[in-house]
UniProtKB/TrEMBL annotation:
Signal peptide: none annotated. Keywords: Coiled coil, Kinase, Membrane, Phosphoprotein, Transferase, Two-component regulatory system. It comes from Pseudoduganella aquatica. Pfam families: HATPase_c, HisKA, Response_reg. It is found in: Cell inner membrane. This is histidine kinase. It is an enzyme of class 2 (transferase). Residues 139-173 form a coiled coil. One of its GO terms (molecular function) is phosphorelay sensor kinase activity.
Length: 399
């Protein structure tokens, strides 16, 4: 495709108090394709520059006489470059004042021409000054780009560092999980080994009642081991993303009733009263099977860590038009600040390790994963001595 290049005329501002010379210069330079504007004082030159600057028609070059009444060439160059730092300035001077011309160059003039001038001498000076101006502008834009790149680099570096930190943390969490896991697996396995050794040993005779008790211990430890392995596999499946969910509209009261049937024996054992205060019409968008798993986890915790003859109440409230909050409130011992801070850590049973309630310390970790995978949120509020409320927020509505 052909491109039409319109080259803009180069604008030169000429300031010289010797009018005849200024006009002659204007005429001569226009003949060489330059657009010239002349004036007879430094003050007038600055006014013209300011007007050109605000009118969007900047001068590229200033040709200023060194000796002028009022503002002299040096002062004009200095003030003009303050208005437009890109402006190329050339000083015009007589033979006797080259020293001052050098001074002018120190405040920003690019070159000087000697009076009286010949066109053949002045044209190359102007061309050089304009070329220097162009290079300066290019340099400045390159510098700007360089600076932008540097800023970008710093940002990318910061992002990389943050990503590495996150990866390190994930790695640490995995290592901690693995070391906790081997410890947790070893405990029931050691119990199985120990009691089996006693049972099969000739040197350690035991009564029939003891044998029965040891076998019971082995059975209990085996069940615990199996649960641990199943829970770990389940968790690994969720964490690796291998678990696929099938979201659907689930009637909440109905699903809660099904869960209740499953946890009721546990509640009866502890004399815990179950109260369901969920509107019949309430529904959530969730994977039905996994939602049941979540609710059973929360309900069984609320029963397990309750006091005897306490109660568990399930409420359902509207967060906004699109989300519901389901809360499971118990009358147990509640959780301290320190316990709340350590909540949702795999295998951390928050002091229940030696307690009467069995568990692996994986239930809530799994529950949280599942709720988040279903686009929801899981949280807890607790008052030591009064009880805890575990809540989950899910997409859904009350009617
Ligand atoms: N409603 C609750 N009231 C008081 N403490 C609770 C409650 N729910 C959980 N906890 C504490 O949090 C710990 C972790 O709970 P989580 O459900 O993850 O594991 P768990 O119940 O010990 O074992 P499991 O894997 O069988 O569920 C529990 O051991 C218990 O100390
Ligand atoms: Mg639990």
């Amino acid at each position: 495709m052909e491109q039409l290049l319109v080259e803009e005329a180069i604008r030169i501002l000429i300031a010289d108090d010797e009018l005849a010379q200024m006009r002659a210069l204007c005429d001569t330079l226009s003949q060489y394709g330059y657009e010239t504007v002349g004036c007879s004082s430094g003050e007038a030159a600055l006014r013209l520059m300011q007007a050109a600057e605000s009118g969007g028609q900047r001068f590229q070059l200033l040709l200023a006489d060194l000796m002028m009444p009022g503002l002299d060439g040096i002062a004009v160059v200095q003030a003009a470059r303050a208005i437009d730092a890109d402006l190329a300035c050339v000083i015009m001077t007589g033979e006797g004042s080259i020293g001052s011309a050098v001074q002018a160059m120190q405040v920003g003039a690019l070159d000087y021409v000697l009076k009286p001038f010949r066109v053949s001498a002045i044209l190359p000076v102007l061309a050089r000054a304009l070329e220097t101006r162009k290079l300066r502008i290019m340099n400045a834009s390159l510098e700007l780009r360089l600076r932008e790149h540097a800023v970008q680099l710093v940002r990318i570096n910061e992002e990389l560092q943050a990503a590495r930190l996150q990866a390190d943390r994930a790695n640490e969490a995995k290592s901690a999980f693995l070391s906790n896991m081997s410890h947790e697996l070893r405990t029931p396995l050691n119990a199985i080994l120990g009691f089996s050794q006693i049972l099969s040993s000739e040197q350690l005779p035991s009564t029939a009642a003891q044998k029965k008790q040891f076998a019971g211990n082995i059975l209990q430890a085996s069940r615990h081991l199996l649960r641990l392995i199943n829970d770990i596999l389940d968790l690994a499946k969720v964490e690796s993303g291998a678990l696929t969910l099938e979201p659907e509209q689930v009637p909440l009261a109905h699903v809660l009733q099904e869960c209740r049937t499953l946890v009721d024996p546990l509640a009866r054992l502890r004399g815990v009263e179950m109260r369901m205060a969920v509107p019949e019409q309430a529904s959530v968008t969730a994977d039905r099977v996994r939602l049941k798993q979540v609710l059973i986890n929360l309900l069984s915790n609320a029963i397990k860590y309750n006091r005897d003859h306490g109660s568990v109440t399930v409420h359902c409230t509207e967060i906004d038009t699109e989300r519901l909050r389901v809360s499971v409130q118990d009358t147990g011992a509640g959780l301290s600040e320190a316990q709340l801070a350590a909540m949702f850590q795999p295998f951390n049973r928050l002091g229940q390790e030696g307690g009467t309630q069995e568990g692996t310390g994986l239930g809530l970790v799994m529950t949280r994963h599942l709720v988040e995978k279903m686009g929801g949120e899981l949280g807890v509020v607790s008052t030591p001595g009064l009880g805890s409320t575990f809540w989950l927020a899910l997409p859904g509505c009350l009617d």
